[in-house]
Amino acid sequence: MRLAALLLAGVGSLAMAADAAKWVEGRHYVVIRPAQTTQVPPGKVEVLEVFSYGCPACFQFQSTVEKIRAGLPSNAQMAFVHASWNQSESWPLFQRSFITAQSLGVADKNHTAVFSAIWGENGPLAVADTKTNRLKTRQPTIEDVAAFYAKRGGVTESKFVETAKSFYVEARMKQWDALIKAYQVSGTPTLIVGGKYRLDLGMVGTVGETLELIKYLVQKEAGGR
Asked: Checking phi first, is residue 153 left (phi over 0); if not, alpha (psi -120 to 50) or beta?
């Protein structure tokens, strides 16, 4: 058994060495210094998407995110942080509502539906006209978002609005803004592995290659395990 374990360890080391030659720091990913604290349980490596519901590129990237999540190794876990820097397209509102939904336990099951409500044709939370691509004069309000989640079930409108205006949500928004700044994220969507490796769109090609790189960085962060 000991010999078999040593052989497996040797194979793993060779695989890591081959991957290290393939994936080059600065070309395929950026090392974040200092590394940031992650929000997943001990023993898990965080794969974080920095995104915004108000970002059309994030809407297009959503199917890729689901493929990445489905393909993650058992020691990795997906997480999300919502950006807020684009006020004209309601990013601060959607950041607030996402944190609210997370705290109420209704974020994950409604994640795709929220994107569709914003970017689908005649979506109830649309920020832009899908035909002209022009921003709507009337942008969604927290009450509109609360009504959307209430219709989906699991929370009342009044509870959603109350939570959205709480000290916890306000503090969390500030924490996320500081975290995104520490990650030096300049656009969405962006992926962060283990709080220390940043993958910007365009640095890697296909979905398969992106997942391969993520798996390499997860293994690297986990110490080669």
From this structure: left
Residue in the structure block whose two tokens are 């079930």: 153
**Which structural domain range is residue 129 located in?**
2-221
pLDDT in tens, 121-131: 889 999 999 88
> Closest by alpha carbon to 101, among 148, 65, 59?
148
Question: Taking the CA atoms of the chain, what radius of gyration do you get in angstroms?
Answer: 19
Q: Could you say which DSSP state residue 225 is in?
A: -
Give the per-residue SS3 of 88-144.
HHCHHHHHHHHHHHHHCCCCHHHHHHHHHHHHCCCCCCCCECCCCCCECCCCCCHHH
Whether 7 has a pLDDT exceeding 90, the answer reads no
The token pair at 215 is 């798996």
**CATH number of the domain enclosing 118:** 3.40.30.10
pLDDT in tens, 57-68: 999 999 999 999
Residue 118 near residue 53, CB atoms below 8 Å: yes
Q: How far apart are CA 98 and CA 223, in angstroms?
A: 33
Contact criterion met (CB below 8 Å) for 162 and 155 = no
Number of C-beta neighbours around residue 74 at 10 A: 6
For the record, the structure tokens of 32 come out as: 């974040």
Total number of domains in the chain: 1
